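hi got a favour to ask and not much time before my train. below you get a single protein, a line of residues and a line of whole numbers that encode the local backbone shape. could you go over both lines and see whether the tokens make sense for that sequence. a few lines back from you is plenty, here it is:
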Amino acid sequence: MISIKILAERIIRILAGGDRNIDDFNIDIREVEMMVSSAANWLIKQNLFQNITQAQHNVDGQYIATFKSVPVLFDDSMDLAYCVLPAKYISMPHDRGIHQVSKMKDQFNVFIPIRNGAVAVFANSPAGRMENRIGFYPEGTNIYFTRDISKDVDELLIKLVIASATDIATNASFIPPDMEMPIIEKVLQMFGQERPQDKQNNNNPNN
């Protein structure tokens, strides 16, 4: 895997026509990084939803971001323990964009995801009791828990299917090898639509 930054640097070299023309190529790498992120977002969603339509319910590990030591908070007005999600997650059926929630050192006992509003519906049923396990449901940028875990747990491990490459640091290894060329091609197409033609033989593509 490579980072958004490295891929952006490769694209700049292609646009400039090689390393020797880099100094004459006036473009901010941050702009290219944003385009790489946009292209990655599009490809990630295409791949994930293609898997869903093919009844493949597993999510490739390369699309999962792990967030450690997410604080457990308590809302006094609603009498509920909750966490603020550390990043946006992709919208998938049955909230599968929240891949896993667990204690930091106990990933074998993951919390049970439930639909928003289902707690009241199943409160008095065996399903609602969930065999004494902890459930959670998403609401906005938070997840709320079926029990007050804030007295016993300070922080959690949360794994999300990321909705956006912009939630990943540009220097983090993130983009898998099979996505490199599709991203490069898509970003070059973006520039091909916007970048003016080089009409002068002066090694400056902006004139």
Q: What stands out?
A: Residues 4-56+176-194 form one domain. The radius of gyration is 22 Å. The chain has two domains: 4-56+176-194, 63-161.
